[in-house]
Amino acid sequence: MGGVSLMQRLLVLSAFLLLQTSLSLAYSLKNCSIEYMADGVLDCSNRKLVSIPDDIPSHVSSVNLSDNLVEQINRGSFGNLSKLNILFLIFNHINYVEDGSFIHLCALTQLYMDNNKMTDLTGKLFMGLSNLTMLSLNENNIQFIHTSAFQFLSSLQTVRLDSNNLQQVSDLLPILQLPHIQKLSIGSTQFSSFETKDLPLNVSSSLTVLDLSDSKLEKFSITTDIFPYLEMINLIGSGIDSGLKWAVPDKALLRNITQLYFGHPLIAFEELQKVLESLDSLVHLRLTYMEELIHNGILATVCKIPTLKKLVLDFNHVPNLSSQLVDCRHLSELDLSHTYMRELPEGKIRFMKQLRFLTLEWNRLTKVPDDIQSLSSLKILNLGKNFISDLSCNDFINTTGLTELYLVSNRIVKLDRCVFENLNELNILDLSDNLLWTLGGVFKKGLPRLEFLDLSKNNLIILENEDFQALGSLTFLNVVSTHIGRVKRRTFLGLNNLRNLTVSIPLDYETHFRGTGQLEHLTINLFIDGSFKSPLPSHHDAFYQLKCLKVLTIKCKGYHFGLPLDIPLEMLQSMKHLEEFTAENVYISALDPETFQFNPQLKSLTIGQTDLSDLLPELFEPIPNLQVLDLSESQIKSLDFLTQVNLPALRCLKLRDNEITVINETIFQCLPALTHLDLENNPFTCDCSNAGFIQWVRSNNQTQVVNGHQYTCSFPVAEQGSKLLDFDIQSCWMDVSFLCFISSSCITLVTLLTSFIYYFLRWQIAYTFHLFLAFLYESRRRKKGAPHQYDAFISYNIHDEAWICREMLPVLEGEQGWKLCLHHRDFQPGKPIIENITDAIYGSRKTICVITRRYLQSEWCSREIQMASFRLLDEQKDVLILIFLEDIPAHQLSPYYRMRKLLKKRSYLSWPQAGQHTGVFWQNVRRALEAGGAATETTHLLTGPAAR
């Protein structure tokens, strides 16, 4: 800052003061952050907020304010968010919402206010939300809904009111009457019953889904045609110990019900039978935690429902469960997950010739059930989360129509070549999280339509040549494993349509990606074991085929032992369409400046866990289209390198967990498109060296500094733990040198001004001061009514004293009897002269000025006539008598401005003109002394001619 000019400093200071009143323009949000990859999504969750932030940008489409301490929402809380679509306010302490608080959210479609403390829904609470389709108010204390509460929600389709304190069905009337309502969830309510007789007869709702789960209902009764479109009822966990009563006397009242959920034994066997027999259109039935009723044979009734297609029996621990399904031959979907079965006895489901979707996950099966071989219609089979260790060639011999097979999280050790050879329609195969150590050539034949294959989290040791040669349709492959010791050069040969590959490769890889010419996304997990002793060999030709690659991610697991990985420059040579490159824990030091010389389309660059302290700006010259730059965890100490690069398109810059202490704000002038800046967990210095950066963070309205208001100080020690943006920067603009300059300039100006005044105006100032004192003196004297001490004060030059004594005194004092004041006779000894003059002029009725050339040249005589003229102007009385002892031409009076001014306005007495008629002269003086009226411009008592 030392080289900044005075004018620049003043401009910066004025700008700073202006910014204090316009922080609303700032884009550095105090308590929120905008997700870069999902622009318009604002995250303000878990920030201990007690009110809605006032700096939410107006353009956001989604705001998450969950997990805070907000208690109230006021009318102005969301005043400028006219484009907001989704608002999350769950897990707060909201107990009051002012009417009209959402009036400006005209574009809002989803509002979530679960887990708060709301008690009432007032008539104008949701005013303005005409486009809202989803409203979730679960787990509040709502016990009252105004009849007009939902009148503004004309587009509302889904309402969730689980776990509230509503007492009766009639409370739901404002919701049921909504024109587009489809789904209503009122689980865990306080209703003792749900009966449509409690609602007006003329009400008809468009509701399709009704969720009453976990409600302590004694009775569920539909006696009016209020739900003509109802398709799904959820009663899981509903009922009381004595059992839920089902009262639907007319089957036609629930003619469209296709889905029904029951759970927990809170309904009697006979009552459930009555329910199932009354539904003629049931397609999907879920019975969860119903062991007792299943044991008593309820499935016999279930299997008789002719329309039933999907049956979910999850979380039922019944040993002979499958035996009761023999008659359910018409099912197309069966879910037996979480049923704790160890085996599926042969012949129990083999007759389900229409079964297309079978879920057996989260059980204890040790092998694929034999009945699977008979299910030729099966399309989707889920055997995940079991204990299957072996797959035989007959397990899927007849399931030739299978399109999806999930075997995730089992204990499969190996695969025989023939296991999947008949699955010609299979599209998705998930074998992740098993114990596979070899593929056994299983993918060298068959599976012509397989598109998705996940082999991650296995114990694969070697990937052999052409291990996947038969998978010509494969587009996604994941073979990540920490056990892979070798991937041979021709492993991926034949994967001509592969688009996405994630693979683990040992550090001394010799892998070639030959045959993967259409690959667009490649993720390589390099790993190092204790045997690694030498640098990585340069097999850059391994990547030569990847000419279509757009995204390349390389992550190294393990410690380098100080040895460079030596990723060759030529590795990226063929990737002319590369748009994203990520390298984590790969490079030991800064990249070679020519690393990206063949990748001009690169838009996103991430280099992490690397020592980039000596990063060269030339690295970025070949990639001017870069939009995202992430250099986190890279030991960067300064951002100065950015001043030497040309990145006009850079929008996102992430530099988390580095060693940056000071930032020069001018750096960001080189990044005109920057909108997202992340500098969290850097050891910032809180002093004037960061003043410019702090001001920039506060004031700029383009770049969002993610969590900028949470950045803390590391230096100096006294500031540790305090917030960076709380540092007072105002004093920084006036540094020591600047203050010294201002101080010395002021001292110089004061010295010059004082010298000028003393030399040219000292007497004027002194005279003005004493005039002021005289004014005060006269004012006090007039207030006291004190008489004058003298008739006249004689102002004369010492050289004219002989004429005064010889001519004036004998006549005026001796003959006429006037009491005169003369300085040589009547001034008080020891008293300042100017004070004696003041006292003499204001203590006398008149002042007689005896004027000669010497008088005009006398400094003190000049002061006396000036003070007398001031009195004349002040009192506006004839207190001044002018006597000229010499004839003085007008041109000789020019230097004496005040005297010339007086002579232009007043007559005077001239001693030379009196000649031999001195008696007349003194008689005129007497008449002047006797006069006491107001002063005029020409006083006729004075016989001398006015000066011209």
TrEMBL record:
The chain crosses the membrane at residues 736-761. Residues 1-26 form the signal peptide. It holds the Pfam family TIR. SUPFAM superfamilies: L domain-like, Toll/Interleukin receptor TIR domain. GO terms for cellular component: plasma membrane. Residues 788-929 form the TIR domain. It comes from the Eukaryota. GO terms for biological process: inflammatory response; innate immune response; toll-like receptor signaling pathway. Keywords: Glycoprotein, Immunity, Inflammatory response, Innate immunity, Leucine-rich repeat, Membrane, Receptor, Repeat, Signal, Transmembrane, Transmembrane helix. SMART domains: LRR_SD22 (SM00365), LRR_TYP (SM00369), LRRCT (SM00082), TIR (SM00255). It is a single-pass type I membrane protein. Coiled coil: none annotated. Belongs to the Toll-like receptor family. This is Toll-like receptor 13.
